[in-house]
Amino acid sequence: MPRKITVTRVAAMRSKQLTALGIANFRRAATADGADKSGLTALIYAYMANFACDAALTVALANTLFFSAATGESKTKVALYLLVTIAPFAVIAPLIGPALDRLQRGRRIALATSYGVRVVLAIILALNFDTWILYPAALGMLVMSKSFAVLKSAVTPRLMPPEMDLVRVNSRLQIFGLVGGTTVAGALAGVVAFIFGSPGALWLTAILAVVGAYLSMRIPAWVEVTEGEIATTFTYHGEPAAGEGRSHGSSSRPPGPAEDTSKLRQPLGHNILTGLWGTGTIKMLIGFLFLYVPFVAKAHADTEGLIGLALAGAVAVAAGAGNIGGNALGTKLKMTKPGVVVLRCAIAATVAALFAAGTHTMLMVALAALFANTASALAKVSLDASIQKDLPDESRASAFGRSETVLQLSWVLGGAIGILAPTELWIGFTIISVLMVIGLSQTAMIYRGKSLIPALRGTRPNSMAPEAAKTKKHPARSKR
After folding, report:
1. What is the pLDDT of residues 96-155, one digit of tens each?
2. What b/e readout covers 261-273, taking b as 16+ CB neighbours within 10 angstroms?
3. Are residues 205 and 277 part of one domain?
4. Rounded CA gap, 85 and 138, in Å?
5. Are 139 and 286 contained in the same domain?
6. Helix or strand run (H / E) with residue 264
């Protein structure tokens, strides 16, 4: 206690005590269930930095990239830069999963590199804030954020504590990212932007990216060990021969030390495919809302004034609340039928989009964001449960990397539609609703063993034995 007690000193002392208590509780939660020993805590910190960079960038560009694109001419420019920057990601993303399967070393370096690129892009943005470089650099940072998410999914199974399952691990990562990364960094970036303007927030983004690169290299080195891993594949060539299959939910025989696992491929089962289609359909709506709502808010700011911007903020709050609530709820549910959960979540998100298209009000858009993010979190938890239950340990890292690639591509597709769609609510939500109905139909058909795509037709089991990789023989060598 200070010698002379004053209101200011008591308030300062109390604030210091509460801050210390909050930090202690945060560390206790981050290291709970053996996360500090397994290395999960280090991944939590690196993952929080990714959310923090995204939040700071959003605040920095709030008055430029998002809210300045109200006219048709500026939206055309944004669409052009979107094509230039997102199109390469759409081409490269399908190659990320197979590349991770072959990457024997350097996964931590790859995570740190995604931050290093963002450091350079943030500095370029801060120094060229009022030029055309703004759009490609900002969208390039978005690509790096999505690439980090894919890389993170590939290392997560190797950092799982024995006391936790993958569903709880991914939910914990998501909650820490939203609360510790988005909320705290977003508030700090708002203060910095208010004092120093948007360039100041961009310099903060660069600093956060430097911290993220450092935290990525603090992840334990055992995530680099890939010996014995079996890559996953979307293809399936029928029932295995007698004695090769494995029953639903059981664990396959681990490969022996002399076996070459590089020649094996683990097909993804029925529940996982259902989860991918359903969750990807919902992710498309999430990406659409993220980029479409700011355009609508700015376009209607002249007629609705601050009401439009306030409702846009309500959409963001509803999205965050739905994400946190969905992850918290998902950890408490027993995923006995994950395919059914995913299908119901996809139905709920599609109905919410249809209601938004029919009512075309910002209030309904906020409710759609709440339902969509809750459904997205629950569907992702169900997908994680399917991967853990239906795949052997040696294939989970590959499965998470490939599934996250599919989900990020779905997000990018929805975001592209949000950029290109007209700012009339009913038109934009009608377009995304049509695509979601198609995705929902495919999810329902996959769940029943059918498909709109002929190559994916046929009922496959939830769990199956690895298959030999199909390789093409060289004509000249085949004659010898």
Report:
1. 656 655 655 677 888 899 899 999 999 998 888 777 777 778 777 887 887 888 788 778
2. beebbbbbbbbbb
3. no
4. 9
5. no
6. strand 264-267
